[in-house]
């Protein structure tokens, strides 16, 4: 036996990936992701630990020491998340004898600033939010269309799906939210305002075209945002498809695919035939599990504008991604120096809803001004509080502006005539 991938070993030992990473952290073993490989010695060590804990599949040879916690509860804990529908292995019951490091912060990336580690275990999991980027004509729209067609429950006949900028897919591994304004624009405008909406970036590369300028750009954006990437090599149905060239080209960017011994997950797909799409969704879920994405539906509301527009009939409509807390019809929202009261909300499938929790994209009717993509949305207790918040923001902005003018004047004075 030689090197083994972390997730392969986790599967073999019937452990959750998060638990496996905890063990690795405890051992001080470094890794980049669940697809990183670990040495044989480490594998043996882990098997021993798992056997001692008695938390694995049970058919491992147990070398249980005398102090084995025979009465350790084997009930799954901490994964009561609604979307955690996969048949999770019983979470590791921690033996009292073994001091265990808390869930490692290195296992999470991106939005880990939102939740502190201490309270993390009590906060429910949330669905991953995925963005799709890549070179023009490599099949971003087609891939999203395929996923939408096959994974979004059909609505009643006659229902018109309005473009809301995001949709929710139901997969065997739980809910996945896709931002469906593909391209770097959505990603960069949102990021430019300091918000990070995406948890995972899918970089679509056509198998007959390999890496193109916008592919490199997309990769650079994902790297800058520290958003984990999954590569989808699309158009695999074409006779001229050359996935090996794509993988070699990626290697030249220092992105080494798994099968070449690296950590990069590369999934061959066809948006035309659907080949590989299920695998892609599975890798997204695997990655989400690793990232340990959580948000508190009972916490203070926080959200980001995905897009805003004016509808001739309804007026101003905004798609907002709920990141923390829960939105309710009637809530007061503040975006920049504007506020609105939610008159109506629709989910991404066009259905009317009364409330929306974390990782839910909702279309909101009730703003008076069109909000811009990437603007942060917060809620206020009532209209008075909303106005107060806006007044504070406006005065802060004027102070900053005045200070800037002042500084400029002083500079000019200093420089003399
Ligand atoms: P985008 O610019 O990245 O959004 O690319 P599109 O989704 O618009 O696709 C560009 C072209 O490639 C269209 O003509 C699609 O029909 C075609 N296309 C996309 N995916 C596939 C695929 O998997 N196989 C084949 N044969 N054609 C595809
Ligand atoms: Mg397109």
UniProtKB/TrEMBL annotation:
Residues 125-298 form the Tr-type G domain. It comes from the Bacteria. The chain holds residues 1 to 417 of 622 of the full protein. Residues 54-121 are annotated as: Disordered. It is found in: Cytoplasm. This is Translation initiation factor IF-2. Residues 128-276 are annotated as: G-domain. GTP binds at residues 134-141, 180-184, 234-237. One of the essential components for the initiation of protein synthesis. Protects formylmethionyl-tRNA from spontaneous hydrolysis and promotes its binding to the 30S ribosomal subunits. Also involved in the hydrolysis of GTP during the formation of the 70S ribosomal complex. Residues 110-121 have a biased composition (Basic and acidic residues). Keywords: Cytoplasm, GTP-binding, Initiation factor, Nucleotide-binding, Protein biosynthesis. Signal peptide: none annotated. It comes from Deinococcus aerolatus. GO terms for molecular function: translation initiation factor activity. Belongs to the TRAFAC class translation factor GTPase superfamily. Classic translation factor GTPase family. IF-2 subfamily. Residues 64-109 have a biased composition (Low complexity). Its main location: cytoplasm.
């Amino acid at each position: 036996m030689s090197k083994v991938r972390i997730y392969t070993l986790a599967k073999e030992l019937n452990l959750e990936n998060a638990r496996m990473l905890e063990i690795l952290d405890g051992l001080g073993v470094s890794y980049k992701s669940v697809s990183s490989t670990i040495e044989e010695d480490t594998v043996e060590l882990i098997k021993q630990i798992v056997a001692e804990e008695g938390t694995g599949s049970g058919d491992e040879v147990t070398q249980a020491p005398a102090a084995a916690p025979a009465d350790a509860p084997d009930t799954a804990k901490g994964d009561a998340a609604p979307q955690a529908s996969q048949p999770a292995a019983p979470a590791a019951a921690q033996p009292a004898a073994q001091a265990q490091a808390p869930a490692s912060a290195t296992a999470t990336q991106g939005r880990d600033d939102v939740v502190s580690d201490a309270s993390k275990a009590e906060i429910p999991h949330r669905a991953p939010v995925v963005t799709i980027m890549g070179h023009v004509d490599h099949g971003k729209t087609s891939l999203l269309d395929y996923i939408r067609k096959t994974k979004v429950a059909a609505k009643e006949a006659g229902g018109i799906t309005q473009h809301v900028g995001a949709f929710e897919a139901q997969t065997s591994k739980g809910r996945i939210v896709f931002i469906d304004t593909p391209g770097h624009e959505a990603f960069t405008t949102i990021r430019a305002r300091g918000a990070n909406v995406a948890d995972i970036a899918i970089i679509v590369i056509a198998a007959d075209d390999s890496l193109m300028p916008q592919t490199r750009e997309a990769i650079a954006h994902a790297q800058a945002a520290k958003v984990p990437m999954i590569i989808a090599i699309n158009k695999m149905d074409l006779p001229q498809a050359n996935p090996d060239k794509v993988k070699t080209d990626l290697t030249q960017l220092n992105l080494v695919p798994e099968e070449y011994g690296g950590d990069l997950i590369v999934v061959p797909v066809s948006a035309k035939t659907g080949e590989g799409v299920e695998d892609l969704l599975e890798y997204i879920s695997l990655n989400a599990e690793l990232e340990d994405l959580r948000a508190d539906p009972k916490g203070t509301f926080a959200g980001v504008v995905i897009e805003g527009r004016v509808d001739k009939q309804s007026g101003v409509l905004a798609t907002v991604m709920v990141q923390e807390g829960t939105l309710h019809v009637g809530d007061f929202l503040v975006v920049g120096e504007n506020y609105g009261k939610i008159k109506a909300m629709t989910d991404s499938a066009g259905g009317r809803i009364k409330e929306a929790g974390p990782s839910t994209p909702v279309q909101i009717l009730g703003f008076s001004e069109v909000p811009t993509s990437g603007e942060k949305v917060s809620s206020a207790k009532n209209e008075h509080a909303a106005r107060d918040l806006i007044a504070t923001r406006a005065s802060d902005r004027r102070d900053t502006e005045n200070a800037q003018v002042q500084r400029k004047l002083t500079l000019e004075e200093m420089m003399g005539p």
